């Protein structure tokens, strides 16, 4: 009955909505079939979408399916934290919560993740994979309340792409109870970044003090 209701709700859906509806089922099928047409068709059958329509929604092959899965996680994350509860947390806790939610959302699909990372690592897919990671990092920082428009906008996202990518790699092969090793790894990486940010802030403050002092000196002793 639930599957029939789900299928009926997609009768008038847009391609974007069909992509989103198929995404988690494709990922589950990818555990066994890889990111292939077989996974796409299995998901379409499970959701009640016609094969031709499923192919139209995902006409870009494996990377397109992976992109749909990433977008599904992004959408779930945005809905989960739409209540604004992150606002009361320190920045490091906001980022930890966002990354951990993403990991929890794909728990049980580690094999699909490993297969996805193998596809992303192919030379022809590296640029698209970087774009996927950057998009997710940007969404996380925006949910975390980041409004930077200077170089910090880019450095924050680049650092988070690194943290998230490395954590996913640990997560994919983590067999510890409750993914304890992944959680510990994530905590260490975030702590390392926080220490780096503190050191950078001190360095910039020292540079600013030095520059101001030199400027005032020039005012007092103008160069001839």
From TrEMBL:
<comment type="pathway">
    <text>Cofactor biosynthesis; ubiquinone biosynthesis.</text>
</comment>
<dbReference type="InterPro" id="IPR012762">
    <property type="entry name" value="Ubiq_biosynth_COQ9"/>
</dbReference>
<feature type="domain" description="COQ9 C-terminal">
    <location>
        <begin position="127"/>
        <end position="197"/>
    </location>
</feature>
<keyword id="KW-0809">Transit peptide</keyword>
<comment type="function">
    <text>Membrane-associated protein that warps the membrane surface to access and bind aromatic isoprenes with high specificity, including ubiquinone (CoQ) isoprene intermediates and presents them directly to COQ7, therefore facilitating the COQ7-mediated hydroxylase step. Participates in the biosynthesis of coenzyme Q, also named ubiquinone, an essential lipid-soluble electron transporter for aerobic cellular respiration.</text>
</comment>
<keyword id="KW-0831">Ubiquinone biosynthesis</keyword>
<dbReference type="Pfam" id="PF08511">
    <property type="entry name" value="COQ9"/>
</dbReference>
<dbReference type="GO" id="GO:0006744">
    <property type="term" value="P:ubiquinone biosynthetic process"/>
</dbReference>
<protein>
    <submittedName>
        <fullName>COQ9 family protein</fullName>
    </submittedName>
</protein>
<comment type="similarity">
    <text>Belongs to the COQ9 family.</text>
</comment>
<dbReference type="GO" id="GO:0008289">
    <property type="term" value="F:lipid binding"/>
</dbReference>
<keyword id="KW-0446">Lipid-binding</keyword>
<dbReference type="InterPro" id="IPR013718">
    <property type="entry name" value="COQ9_C"/>
</dbReference>
